[in-house]
Amino acid sequence: MAGTFNPFDAEQAHNSWPLLAELRERSAVVDIGDGMAYVTRHAECRQLLRDTEGFSSAQGFKAPGVVVPLEDRTLGELDPPNHTLVRRVMVTALTPKSVRAAEPYIEAKASALLDALPATGPVDLVPTFTGPLPNSSTMHLLGFPEDDGPQIMAWAKGLIESGFPATHRNRDGVFGFAEGFPEFAGYIDDRIAERRSEPRDDVTTKLLELEVDGERLTPPQLRAMVRNLITGGLTTTSQLLGNLLYALFTLPDLEDRLREDPEATSRAIDESLRLSPPVMFIPRGCRRETEVDGTELEPGQRVVMGTACANRDETVFEHGDDFDVDRPNGSDHLTFGYGPHFCPGAPFARAVARIAVTTFLRHFKPGTVRLVDGFEFQNVPAFFETGPARLDVEIAR
User: Fold this and answer.
1) pTM of the entire structure?
2) Based on C-alpha coordinates, what's the Rg of the chain?
3) What is the rounded distance in angstroms from the CA atom of residue 37 to the CA atom of residue 391?
4) Which domains does the chain have, with CATH numbers?
5) Alpha-carbon distance 182 to 229, whole Å?
6) What sign does the dihedral 327-332-334-335 (CA atoms) show?
7) Each residue of 14-52: pLDDT tens digit?
8) CA atoms within 13 A of residue 78's CA, in its CB half-sphere
9) Dist CA 392 CA 124 (whole Å)
């Protein structure tokens, strides 16, 4: 059946769970219309995500016909050999050592944000906690001034919600990052220029100085990679934290479990990533004829890896619609991708979420924070994201 689902339509994407279950039961690959194929199951998503020769990342989340210049592509929009070079640089910059070094800052910032909340009464945790903490943590990792965090977050939010991820244009139709968002791009260029003259112990300097096979990133590539880190912090990590806190407020006994067993927090993070993935799918372009579970994929066809759908595949995750903090294979989700394109920022996102939730539970006494009466979950407006646009709670101490 064609035309069953359009993952690029935010209204459909955000209310798709029952339909995705039907598609997953029907076939591993489903024709969803407009020449697109949607991969529904875990094994087949992993198979195709590994195949970088047969399936291209170049178009990314862009709409059909949109071609992004090579120098303006983020890591997720690159194919080998360019992807191999750039990813090695990113992984080398985002080492476990770099993440561990940032953890004291993340904890101090989380505490400061929570201290700034009102002692009692209503508050929206998205603009006061789940948004600024990942954003400030990314700024710290990059070595950018903390005071610039609110402006950076506003620029990044405006870019994500403008349609740029799909069209590579701003709201006025101007094409390109530097041309469409000159203040944001200029800010990044200025910070890179500062590191050229005064290197520091931060990720920006590492990205600037690292060489792989004698090559360094070009200035436009550097700008794209820094932008990628900033927007990734605003999307993946902010939505992860928002979704996790929403689960904490709505799932019976989860708060008590995490208070009693802090080691369960990492498993809870994976369950949140699995059930409410900040990024719902990963688009690819088919390069060669490929048969998947009896379906022929053709060169030039848009193939959408339905990672959110695959994360609930019942053949891999028993009772896949349930949040199970004791799930033995919860970390097998595909939210951070799989294979050569596995997200190099995943350890940092996990660290921010772990520290945020641990600090939150330490800051508030049991049962003193709850969603306001009548709260209804509203998703962020971006078509490819899952996360609360608001998280209105009542604090009672």
Assistant:
1) 0.93
2) 21
3) 34
4) 10-395 (1.10.630.10)
5) 18
6) positive
7) 888 999 999 999 999 999 988 899 999 999 999 999 999
8) 23
9) 4
